[in-house]
Amino acid sequence: QLPKKVKIVEVGPRDGLQNEKQLIDANNKIALINKLVDAGLTYVESGSFVSPKWVPQMATSSEIFEKLTKHKGVTYAALTPNMKGFDAAMSVNVDEVAIFGAASQSFSQKNINCSIEESRERFSPVVEAALSKGIKVRGYVSCVVGCPYEGDIAPEAVANVAKKLLDMGCYEISLGDTIGVGTPASVSAMLDAVKAVVPANQLAVHFHDTYGQALTNIYTALSQGITVVDSAVAGLGGCPYAKGASGNVATEDVVYMLNGMGIDSGVDLDKLLEAGWFISDKLNQAPVSKVSQAMRAK
Ligand code: HMG
Ligand code: MG
Description:
Elements: E1 7-10, H1 12-16, H2 26-38, E2 43-48, H3 61-67, E3 75-79, H4 83-91, E4 96-102, H5 105-112, H6 116-132, E5 137-142, E6 146-147, E7 151-152, H7 155-168, E8 172-177, H8 184-195, E9 203-207, H9 214-223, E10 228-231, H10 251-260, H11 269-282, H12 290-297
Parallel strand pairs: 1-10, 2-3, 3-4, 4-5, 5-8, 8-9, 9-10
Antiparallel strand pairs: 6-7
Magnesium ion is lined by residues 15, 176, 178, 206, 208, 239, 248.
């Protein structure tokens, strides 16, 4: 049973651009965000309040939120790994924040410099402060099927971390296949374990397309009752702490697939393609999206 509607969480300006070698200035990022919103995306992860020494590409996040003209009905979100990040996000009126944990200890250490348990100690004041201000918090779990340092990850480990984020107060848990190694079999097994402790309507899926499995994994998730999908325009990016991981599944490819199945995402594919070409030209590279390449060649 497939859903009739799917919500797309556009992570290109954050997950995409955080891992592009070429730095994009705040004005071009804002132009990209505006084009994405104009294409009908209603949730855009627009920045990340992390250490600029760790992720220099996100150093413009305050400037972006300061200069951005927000459109009604659109959520402009950002990552906030600790109170320092949360305070910085609040000072520029970020609409919604996300904390990001991992199902793998080694990845947690490499990515946010602490263990899974320590990460919860950093996250819980963030969630508390956010909820007291009426700010919603999204929770990510990375390495939900595989870890670049530990290999296969047990579905139960993912379920455990996801449940703790839910209990902490996150309204939605985004399950990240950070290195794109999942297949419908491993993704299904992982979702079965997570759905036993987190309701499907509070889950999202976040696939990187390293092994070309993202669309089929999304289809698997949709058929298991998940209706929120993270993706990045032009298939941008990757994760700086997951060597060799390619970008997120391209939003263009997701929208094309949903359109073909008669599932409403509210996104105008033509305008989305324009947004993808805009940022790809700034990066001097071709969009990773197959749909985008096919349509541009026309
Ligand atoms: P730390 O070293 O443990 O933190 O880093 P600390 O509190 O000890 O502070 C160390 C230094 O960082 C200090 O500066 C702090 O001021 C500064 P110094 O005194 O050395 O000059 N600092 C900060 N600066 C700006 N904003 C902050 C902040 N916090 C501390 N919020 C920290 C901890 C998390 C900050 C660090 O490890 C970091 O920035 N990591 C980067 C993590 C990251 O952005 N990863 C990519 C995003 S996650 C992802 O892509 C996966 C996802 O897409 C899902 C998936 O695909 O699986 C979400
Ligand atoms: Mg990611």
